[in-house]
């Protein structure tokens, strides 16, 4: 049997009453959501239980060496490679990016 989904449905409740009910339910949801925002703990963080959450405030100490004489920086991937991986001297491209 064919059904016209665009046709207005017969509802016993008046449109004004229906709108008031939906407004009241939206206000109740908003109040509930506002109460959830009061926590200092991130909801996503508690939900996912991140493994390195306690490490994120630590400062990393890493010694960075300047580019050595036998190394080059690829102009495509911007990684520092050994000269043995140089594929094109003119363009300064590594063998991975040249392939």
TrEMBL record:
Domain of life: Bacteria
Pfam families: DUF4193
Protein's name in the database: DUF4193 domain-containing protein
Organism: Frankia nepalensis
């Amino acid at each position: 049997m064919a059904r016209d989904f665009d046709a207005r449905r017969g509802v016993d409740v008046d449109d004004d009453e229906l709108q008031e009910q939906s407004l009241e339910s939206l206000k109740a949801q908003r109040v509930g959501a506002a109460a959830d925002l009061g926590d200092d703990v991130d909801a996503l963080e508690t939900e996912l239980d991140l493994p390195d959450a306690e490490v994120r405030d630590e400062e990393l100490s890493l010694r960075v060496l300047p580019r050595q004489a036998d190394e080059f920086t690829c102009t495509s991937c911007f990684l520092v490679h050994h000269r043995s991986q140089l594929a094109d001297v003119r363009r300064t491209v590594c063998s991975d990016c040249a392939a």
